[in-house]
Design a protein that fits this description.
- The protein has 370 residues and is mainly alpha-helical.
- The chain contains 17 helices and two strands.
- The protein folds into two domains: 133 residues, no CATH class; 192 residues, Methane Monooxygenase Hydroxylase, Chain G, domain 1 (Up-down Bundle), CATH 1.20.58.
- It has a two-stranded antiparallel sheet.
- Strand 1 and strand 2 form a beta hairpin.
- Helix 5 runs antiparallel to helix 8.
Length: 370
C-alpha cells in the first residue's frame, strides 16, 4: 500500500498473474483426480512396511515402502504389467547393489560402480528409461544405507512389489473415468474439425479449410491417449474382482476406438482434399451438407459411448448418408476434385459404421459400388 500526495492510503491492484497463480481450483482438481492413486500408495506402502517390520522382524524396511511408492506412482498408466515392470527394475537394482556390497563393501567408488553396473544391466534388460532409473535409485539406497544381513532389502523389495500389485487389483483406479474423458476429447475434436470443414465448403474459405486440417492433425495424440487409458483400464479390469462388470463395456469401447483411429486418419485425407477444393474460393453447399450429415451421425456415435441403446440410432444415421455416397449421383456434373472428395467420405462412413458395432464386411457393402 502506498500514500497519495494528499496523504491518503492508496491500495494497489493485485496483478492478474498473481490472481491466476493463487487460484486453488487446478490444484484441487489434481488432488481429486489422483485420490485413488494416493489411497493406493498409502495403503500399499504402509502395509508393506508393517508386514516386513512386524511379521518378518526387519528393523527398518525402507525398501518395502519405497518400492510400492515408486512402482505405483501418480501417472495415469497404472496397468498391472506397468507396475510389475517397474517393480522388476527396482529389484534388479537391489540385487546388483547387494552383490557388489558383499564383494566390495561401501564407499564413494563402490557407489559409482554400483550405479554404473545397475544402469548398464537395466538398460540391457529393458528399453524403458524409467526401468533403469528405478533400478538405479534402489541400488543407491542399498549402497548408502547398508544392512548387516545380506539380501534383507531384497525381501523388503519383494514385499513392496507384491503389495503394489495387490492394491492394483483390490483398490483399482477407475478406468472408466479416464478412458471416457479421453474418448469425449476425441469426439469433441472430431466434431470441431468437421465443423471447420463444413464452414469452409459453404463459403469456399481456404483459411477455414487449413484450420480444419490443423484440427484433424491434432487428433493423433488424442487417439493415443484414449488407447493408453483403455489398455490400462482393460488390464486392471482383468485382475480386479470389483471391475468384472466393466469388462464388456471396455471391450466395446476398444472396438469403437479402433474404428475411430481409422476414421481420424481418413479425416485428415478429407481435410487435405477440402483445402485443395477451397483454393478457388467457390462454395460447395451440397458436399457441405453431406459432411454435416456425417457429423450428426458421429455425434450420435459419441453419445453411444455411455448409452449402448443409442448404437442402433447411430448406425441408422450414418447409414442414411452412406447409401448416397456415389460421386456420380451425389454431386452430378461435379469436377474431378469434388468427386474425389465424395469418394474419400466412403471409407470414413465405413469406419463410423464399424464403430456402431456393424461388422466390417457389412459396413463396406453399405456404400454404393462405383
Amino acid at each position: 500500500m502506498s500514500t497519495s500526495p494528499a496523504g491518503s492510503p492508496v491500495t494497489q491492484a493485485v496483478p492478474t498473474g498473481w490472481r491466476r497463480r493463487i487460484d486453488p481450483r487446478p490444484g484441487l482438481d489434481r488432488v481429486a483426480g489422483s485420490s485413488t492413486a494416493i489411497l493406493q500408495i498409502v495403503v500399499a506402502a504402509t502395509g508393506a512396511y508393517a508386514f516386513s517390520h512386524y511379521v518378518l522382524g526387519h528393523p527398518a524396511p525402507l525398501l518395502a515402502a519405497t518400492v510400492t511408492v515408486g512402482s505405483l506412482g501418480l501417472w495415469r498408466d497404472a496397468r498391472p504389467r506397468q507396475v510389475a515392470e517397474t517393480v522388476l527394475g527396482m529389484l534388479v537394482g537391489i540385487i546388483v547393489a547387494e552383490l557388489l556390497f558383499l564383494v566390495a563393501g561401501t564407499g564413494w567408488w563402490q557407489i559409482a560402480l554400483a550405479l554404473g553396473v545397475t544402469l548398464a544391466v537395466a538398460r540391457f534388460l529393458s528399453g524403458q528409461p524409467g526401468f533403469a532409473i528405478a533400478a538405479a535409485i534402489q541400488s543407491l539406497i542399498v549402497m548408502v544405507i547398508p544392512s548387516p544381513v545380506p539380501f534383507l532389502r531384497l525381501v523388503d523389495g519383494l514385499v513392496g512389489g507384491a503389495a503394489a500389485l495387490l492394491v492394483t487389483a483390490l483398490i483399482p483406479r477407475n478406468p472408466a473415468r479416464a478412458e471416457l474423458r479421453d474418448a469425449h476429447r476425441l469426439f469433441t475434436g472430431y466434431d470441431g474439425a468437421f465443423s471447420a470443414m463444413i464452414q469452409a465448403l459453404r463459403r469456399g474459405d481456404r483459411f477455414r479449410a487449413e484450420r480444419a486440417l490443423e484440427k484433424a492433425r491434432a487428433l493423433t495424440p488424442v487417439v493415443e491417449d484414449w488407447r493408453t487409458s483403455l489398455e490400462s483400464g482393460r488390464a486392471i479390469a482383468r485382475i480386479s474382482p470389483f471391475l468384472r462388470r466393466r469388462r464388456s463395456e471396455l471391450q466395446r469401447h476398444e472396438r469403437m476406438r479402433a474404428s475411430m483411429d481409422l476414421a481420424v486418419r481418413n479425416l485428415r485425407v478429407i481435410a487435405r482434399r477440402v483445402v485443395y477444393l477451397c483454393d478457388d474460393g467457390m462454395p460447395r453447399p451440397v458436399i457441405a451438407d453431406l459432411l454435416a450429415e456425417i457429423a450428426r451421425g458421429a455425434a450420435i456415435v459419441a453419445s453411444s459411448l455411455e448409452d449402448l441403446s443409442l448404437e442402433p440410432a447411430a448406425r441408422e444415421a450414418v447409414l442414411a448418408v452412406a447409401v448416397r455416397l456415389d460421386p456420380r449421383t451425389a454431386v452430378p456434373g461435379a469436377t474431378l476434385g469434388e468427386q474425389n472428395l465424395v469418394g474419400a467420405l466412403r471409407p470414413l462412413v465405413v469406419d463410423l459404421l464399424t464403430a456402431t458395432g456393424m461388422p466390417p464386411a457389412e459396413a463396406r457393402q453399405a456404400v454404393p459400388r462405383i
